[in-house]
Amino acid sequence: MNQPSALLVAHGYPSQPAPPEAVMQRLGAAVGAHLPGWQLRGATLAAPGALERALQGLDAPLIYPFFMAEGWFTKTVLPQRLAQAGGAGLRQLPAFGSDPGLGALIAGQVQAACAAQGWRLQESALLLAAHGSQRARASALGAQAMAAQLAQLLALRDIRCGFVEEAPFLADAARGMGQALCLPFFALAASHVLEDIPTAMAEAGFAGPILPPIGAAPAVPALIAAALLRGA
Questions:
Q1: Phi, psi (5° rounding) for residue 133?
Q2: Helices (H), the chain
Q3: Which of 8, 63, 132, 135 has the maximal Cβ count within 10 Å?
Q4: pLDDT confidence of 74, banded at 50, 70, 90?
Q5: Confidence check: pLDDT of 98 > 90
Q6: How far is CA 231 from CA 49, 55, 80, 91, 226, in A?
């Protein structure tokens, strides 16, 4: 029987491809720790040759898109790159951002962050900081759907979405939130997380904690492993 395998693929950061590539390789190893007997690898689209190298030696791996929404990269770019690398016809699973367990994972992160601040949930608010787009709706719709799900899971005073590339923009959404957390609804900590979000929060006078991107949460490897088992 062939050894099951999977490849986790993220977008990466074209101008600085090495750090996200290293993150994805570590993520592959962390997911693999939950799946004894599997071969797990991670790669980005941005690092030259990384996807092609990661595919070598894997027998019909499941492809897991480490993206927050289904869009052009997951539906067009990734399948094309896989086909060019000789991986045509590989089974691609739903993107990370659409995982049915992600809402509960985020709710746990928010509860823990509020507890660490000594805040009551009922007196606190949450800003989901997401990418958004001027051309496609998938990113914004995914963040808004998550906000609606979290409203059912958490007794927060307010939950808002703010976006890097469309209205309501981050600074506008963050103004006047009072006691609030900011959670980057991103898979990787690239420029939007490291630069755009802190800048916008400072502009808005947002004084609450900015949490790590949800893709960096400690429970993410187990979430991905469960998705791979379902897919297999």
A1: -165, 145
A2: 18-32, 50-55, 72, 78-84, 102-117, 138-153, 170-174, 191, 197-204, 220-231
A3: 8
A4: very high
A5: yes
A6: 26, 18, 21, 9, 9
Answer whether residue 2 shows pLDDT above 80: no
Which residues 6+ apart lie within 8 Å of 206 measured at CB? 127, 174, 175, 177, 180, 182
0.90 exceeded by the pTM?
yes
What are the tokens at 151? 């409203």
**Is 192:164 a contact under the CB 8 Å cutoff?**
yes
Angle made by CA atoms 130, 145, 79, in degrees to the nearest 5 = 70
Closest CA to 168 of 198, 200, 192: 200
Q: Which residues pair with 10 in a beta bridge?
A: 44
Would you say residue 67 has pLDDT above 60? yes
Q: Could you report how far apart the first and last alpha carbons of the chain are, in Å?
A: 14
> What domains are there in the chain, each with its CATH number?
5-98+218-231 (3.40.50.1400), 102-216 (3.40.50.1400)
Residue 154's alpha-carbon distances to 24, 168, 219, in angstroms, are 30, 23, 18
What gap in Å lies between CA 72 and CA 191, rounded to an integer?
A: 20
Q: What tokens does 96 get? A: 């990370």
Residue indicated by tokens 């060019």: 84
Which of 41, 129, 122, 134 is closest to 87 using CA atoms? 41
Bridge partners, 64 (sequence order): 8
Q: What DSSP state is assigned to residue 69?
A: S
Rg (CA), the chain: 18
Contact 25, 42 (CB under 8 A): yes
